[in-house]
């Protein structure tokens, strides 16, 4: 018989960390609550596969907890149909089960964190929040590092993390004597190269689809029957090990490559598993480093370092920015952009082949790799001057891994430069030349990547020069953009006028392109 007080412990859909210390002891006085909420399913235009994946993962997680002896309430959309909010649901469960203490893992998302903090304050329950025990840096450490009055750069942060956690370090120096192997990385995919193909799962989604349909939640994109994403710890770890064995050796080399020959190339596709917390980032890093230590001749240090940088560097970095800068970050619009998101972002119906491919692939798989997000769809939205709220809404909906704490800094900060250069030292914009260099899209495109302003000129070209022209006052003195502005200044006046006129025409009616 336990002497603890009757307690409710809330587990959100992205808190599926089976190794959490909560689960070490079975306590008959503790009830765990997992719930599919209408509010959560509707607050963004979620991809249907994202809804399926979260609901299936929550279902299996509940079953696993029950098997281990814990008491679990798992509510589906059917059970929560009358529940207007998370707070109402918690009130109901607390009353119904006569629970007196409420505990929750601190949500990563500001919106949910505020809701739960307010709830606890107003109800005066015992309990409160605990850590999710997921990230490498604790929340306190992250907030200390990302203090408001300091300028932060990812590279400094990444080196700090490598040293702090002693990853790929050799007597205080980086293994291989370099922090960065970018020169070996970032190649275009060779012609006639056959990409390896992704490891896919096959989860039945019939019940989830019926449930979504019953409640009028359509979701965006294709429903993929069966669902190919991992939904358990075991599958997530298997996907990680498959990545390490088959794909990691080429990860760095082709991480920026763009192609319509494959949709995931040498990327890990671990972001859903990581963001739902099925998978521990520390575990992934340990396995990657172990693969290198065990068989250095079968792995490439450039790839190993490049991959560790993504998880230990970028992922923790954007989380620190989000934690320390919300809620103000959500309204930043440093370039004062106002345009609407073109309709083709939802349909993929555009003649720009690179864009059409990224969006159609997103519809089909709820996935696009980083460079598709940054240098194709993100680049275009920035060049068109789309309002960051609209860009954010799109990215928050359409990807399997989209959760605000990671989506927003990537979108507003890295991709849209809306935070005025806080996260990225310069806007990630390019003409069609970059896409041509990294992809095999341009040969089959309706547009000519070598033209700036003819009727068939690649839209990225005129938009890029017009972007630089438009923001000369704001960006012209940025040292990292000196070369770009020097190139702009080399364009003869008439050529520039024609280029700006074409950019205007595109910005006025992007859906015609
Ligand atoms: P890989 O390329 O194999 O990288 C491995 C892992 O590193 C990823 O799973 C991810 O956890 C981490 N990682 C890599 N880059 C980043 C990054 N910039 N920020 C944070 N983590 C990173 N990632 C999300 O997880 N959720 C999002 O909602 C999201 N939105 C994005 C929006 C934009 C505009 C951009 C440019 C990037 C966004 N990213 C987001 C970052 C990145 O594109 C994805 O993490 C990555 O494509 C996921 O695929 P993967 O697992 O195959 O990654
Ligand atoms: Fe994209 Fe321009 Fe190349 Fe067409 S020509 S695929 S629009 S970069």
Overview of this protein structure:
The chain is mainly α and 513 residues long. It has three domains: 7-130, Rossmann fold; 139-204 and 221-325, Serine Threonine Protein Phosphatase 5, Tetratricopeptide repeat; 344-512, DNA Cyclobutane Dipyrimidine Photolyase, subunit A, domain 3, CATH 1.10.579. 48% of the residues lie in helices and 6% in strands. It has 21 helices and seven strands. It has helices at residues 38-42, 48-67, 86-96, 110-123, 139-145, 154-164, 206-214, 233-254, 271-275, 281-294, 301-325, 344-347, 353-365, 370-384, 388-398, 404-415, 432-438, 459-470, 472-475, 482-489, 493-508, and strands at 7-10, 30-35, 71-75, 101-105, 126-130, 169-170, 173-174. The strands form two sheets. It has a five-stranded parallel beta sheet with strand order 3-2-1-4-5, sandwiched between helices. A hairpin with a 2-residue loop joins strand 6 and strand 7. The longest helix is centred in the middle third of the chain and has 25 residues, at 301-325. The radius of gyration is 24 Å and the shape is globular. It starts with 6 loop residues before the first strand and ends in a 5-residue tail after the last helix. Flavin-adenine dinucleotide is lined by residues 267-271, 274-275, 310-311, 314-315, 318, 369-370, 373-374, 378, 395, 399, 401-402, 406-407, 410-411, 414-415.
Give me the secondary-structure topology:
Blueprint: E1 7-10, E2 30-35, H1 38-42, H2 48-67, E3 71-75, H3 86-96, E4 101-105, H4 110-123, E5 126-130, H5 139-145, H6 154-164, E6 169-170, E7 173-174, H7 206-214, H8 233-254, H9 271-275, H10 281-294, H11 301-325, H12 344-347, H13 353-365, H14 370-384, H15 388-398, H16 404-415, H17 432-438, H18 459-470, H19 472-475, H20 482-489, H21 493-508
Parallel strand pairs: 1-2, 1-4, 2-3, 4-5
Antiparallel strand pairs: 6-7
Bound molecules: flavin-adenine dinucleotide and iron/sulfur cluster.
């Amino acid at each position: 018989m336990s002497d603890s007080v009757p307690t409710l412990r809330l587990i959100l859909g992205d808190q599926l960390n089976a190794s959490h210390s909560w689960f070490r002891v079975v306590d008959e006085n503790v009830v765990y609550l997992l719930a599919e909420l209408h509010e959560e399913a509707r607050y963004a235009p979620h991809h249907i596969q994202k809804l399926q994946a979260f609901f299936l993962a929550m279902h299996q997680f509940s079953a696993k907890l029950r098997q281990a002896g814990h008491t679990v309430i798992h509510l589906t959309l059917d059970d929560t149909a009358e529940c207007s909010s998370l707070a109402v649901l918690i009130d109901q469960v607390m009353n119904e089960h006569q629970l007196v203490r409420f505990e929750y893992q601190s949500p990563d998302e500001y919106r949910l964190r505020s809701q739960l903090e307010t709830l606890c304050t107003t109800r005066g329950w015992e309990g409160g929040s605990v850590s999710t025990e997921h990230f490498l840096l604790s929340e306190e450490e992250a907030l200390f590092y990302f203090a408001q009055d300091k300028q932060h750069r990812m590279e400094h942060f990444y080196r700090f993390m490598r040293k702090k956690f002693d990853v790929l370090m050799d007597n205080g120096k980086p293994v291989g004597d370099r922090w960065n192997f970018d020169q070996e990385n970032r190649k275009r995919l060779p012609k006639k190269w056959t990409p390896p193909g992704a490891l896919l799962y096959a989860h039945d989604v019939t019940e989830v689809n019926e449930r979504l349909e019953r409640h009028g939640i359509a979701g965006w994109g294709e429903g993929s029957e069966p669902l190919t994403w991992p939904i358990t710890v075991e599958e997530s770890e298997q996907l990680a090990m498959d990545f390490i064995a088959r794909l990691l050796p080429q990860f760095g080399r082709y991480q920026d490559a763009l192609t319509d020959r494959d949709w995931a190339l040498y990327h890990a596709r671990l972001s859903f598993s990581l963001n739902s917390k099925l998978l521990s980032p520390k575990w992934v890093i340990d396995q990657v480093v172990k693969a290198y230590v065990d068989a250095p001749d079968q792995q490439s240090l450039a790839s190993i370092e490049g991959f560790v940088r993504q998880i230990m560097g970028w992922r923790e970095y954007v989380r620190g920015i989000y934690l320390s800068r919300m809620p103000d970050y959500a309204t930043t619009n440093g370039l004062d952009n106002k345009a609407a998101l073109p309709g083709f972002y939802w349909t993929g119906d555009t003649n720009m082949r690179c864009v059409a491919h990224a969006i159609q692939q997103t519809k089909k798989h709820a996935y696009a790799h980083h460079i598709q997000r940054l240098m194709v769809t993100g680049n275009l939205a920035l060049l068109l001057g789309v309002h960051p709220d609209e860009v954010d809404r799109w990215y928050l909906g359409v990807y399997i891994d989209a959760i605000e704490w990671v989506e927003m800094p990537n979108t507003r900060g890295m991709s849209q430069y809306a935070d005025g250069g806080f996260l990225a030292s310069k806007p990630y914009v390019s003409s069609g030349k970059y896409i041509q260099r990294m992809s095999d899209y341009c040969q089959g495109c309706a547009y000519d990547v070598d033209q700036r302003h003819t009727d068939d000129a690649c839209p990225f070209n005129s938009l890029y020069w017009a972007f630089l022209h438009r923001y000369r006052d704001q960006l012209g003195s940025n040292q990292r953009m000196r070369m770009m502005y020097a190139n702009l200044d080399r364009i003869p006046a008439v050529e520039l006028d024609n280029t700006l006129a074409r950019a205007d025409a595109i910005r006025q009616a992007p859906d015609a392109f």
